Fold:
Amino acid sequence: MHDTTALLIELGSVILVLGILGRLAGRVGFSAIPLYLLAGLAFGHGGLLPLNASEEFIATGAEIGVILLLLLLGLEYSASELVSNLKTQYPSGIVDFVLNAVPGALAALVLGWGPVAAVALAGVTWISSSGVIAKVLGASSSDQPSPAFPGHRPSMGDTVESSDHAAGAARPTAVAAAPVLNSVVPNAGPSAGGSTVTLNGSGFVGVTAVNFGATPAVTYSVTSAIQITATTPAGTGTVPVTVRVPGFTSNAVNYTYAPTPTLTALAPTQGPSSGGTSVGLTGTGFTGVTAVTFGGTPATSFVVDSATHITAVAPAGTGAVPVTVTTAGGITGPVYYFYLGAPALISVSPSEGASSGGTSVGINGAGLTGATAVTFGGTPATSFVVDSATHITAVAPAGSGTVALTVTAPGGVSNSLNYTYVPAPVLTSLAPAQGPTGAGTGVTLTGSSLATTTAVRFGVTPAEFTVLSNTTIAALAPAGPLGSVAVSVVTLGGTSNSLPYLRVPPPMI
Structure:
């Protein structure tokens, strides 16, 4: 009878003390587990106040209690949370093991409980202490507004707690903080999705979802507690990007789906291989343009005039190349631009002409199709006709001296050929200035610019002649009637002034 009474008294005392400790812990928002452990050490075998009568009952209850404790704590952590935490928190776990498991094992060995008991007690102190820490942090955070949402306090959807906590029965609860999303890089991409973006922030532990608007990311990878790499889904417009962890959703950062650009036309569609041509690009979706390329080579420069037009300067190139425009919405389909070789000049005939202009000149070469200009020393030809890809007929403008003749075509400016302006001829004297009416009298013509003489005329009758120098011509007077006749010279520079030649009758015998 005495033993039964003592047993009941001791058990009642134990239950009363545990209830008081639990109530006390609930009042201060602290876990009762460490208090229970201290009570166990105080009243157990080898403690300060061992309970001999109820020792067997307490020993059995302690074993059951350890199992229930481990089960209770295990319910607080899912497998996915465990794997995610192990990736980023293993250094903290090692420190936690050293600070919480090792002291438990050492305490068991000091008390002489043996290695098995040491391992068991180490597990109890490690897991329970970790739960206590989580509970303390959770209790502190529950009293403060969430940093991601000022003024917000955790609600029923934010943490997972049983109703017995509200009643004061303390239990370890893992409470996470809301993740904070600072930026999405890049913050725009094609409406078709498939872009890789980086989410920067904090609290990315145990991430369960990354959403673009209401659409989940195609894939995402939590690279660290402060960074996530995600693949965008398809979408339109501007949508909020959020990160979800158990019980919390982050603040939103906007991501813009840009329309896919299109390129429909170029003007002009061809230019010189040396580049430098200003090209107008017409299309749609030219917002946020990042590149304009000609066959993979960036344009020398470009200006986005509007959402439908770009002015770009073509780089150097050869042949036919695809032109594309790149925006946040993607890359356009190609429209081809043709690089043309510069025209080449071979000969010009005649290579001399009157300084007054008006000479018809034949220009021979290659690549003359589409010629836009023919110049004589920088002065445009009076007119020109492109007869073929190898020949142009031009009318020389007025000029002087020897000048460079060039042709400009879509492929650029040609090499140059010399063209010489010949001044008009001038006659100063005839010797003799008279002769018989019959043909054959030798006459010497003196003057200037006579080197290109093509004709010597006595009146309208041509005479035989020889150009002796730029100042002298030897001619044979043709037959003609008595009297005076005008003598003139025709050169590439034009027709000279005239001098009188007098035909006289033969002497009387």
